[in-house]
Amino acid sequence: MSVRLDHGEDDLSEMHEINVTPFIDVMLVLLIIFMIAAPLATVDIAVDLPAASAQRSERPDKPLFLTLKSDLTLALDNDTVSRTAIGPALDAATSGDKKQRLFLRADKTVPYGELMTLMNELRGAGYLHVALVGLEATPAAP
């Protein structure tokens, strides 16, 4: 609140100054809200994905990501899952819908044999709709 103490005149004159304190308060509150909300909207698993030049396909509203990390551990969305419990964990995540598409991410340092073993385990669990996730490659210059 802005106050001018001038005892020279008795009439009240208009002040032409803008009080910016409420604006600063609102901006600080919005900054705090976005600082808290932004990290919650991202996936926390760091995977070094290889690049692919295939056409980009539509992403569903609630995709189900299965991640094979560089240390060969598995994560279903953000939760770590053991290899022996991958079938029941997928059944719980998809509510038993084996036709739901799984998005498989694997670090590019993972050996090809390990990726194929995981895909065989998914096939054995009844999940045949698997999409491989990669980064978009930049077009090569001719």
Radius of gyration: 27 Å
What would you call the quaternary organization? Answer: single chain
Number of strands: 7
Strand content: 15-25%
Distance between the termini: 65 Å
Q: Tell me the major beta sheet.
A: 5 strands, mixed
Structural class by secondary-structure content: alpha/beta
Strand order of the largest sheet: 4-3-2-5-6
Overall, the morphology is elongated
How many helices? The count is 3
The ordered H/E elements are HEEEEHEHEE
Return the average pLDDT rounded to an integer. Answer: 80
Helix content: 25-40%
Low-confidence stretches: none
Overview of this protein structure:
By secondary structure, this protein is of the alpha/beta class. It is built from three helices and seven strands, in the order αββββαβαββ. It has helices at 21-40, 86-94, 112-124; strands at residues 51-52, 64-68, 74-76, 79-81, 102-106, 130-132, 135-136. It has a five-stranded mixed sheet with strand order 4-3-2-5-6, covered by helices on one side. A hairpin with a 2-residue loop joins strand 3 and strand 4. The longest helix has 20 residues, at 21-40. The N and C termini lie far apart (65 Å). The mean pLDDT is 80.
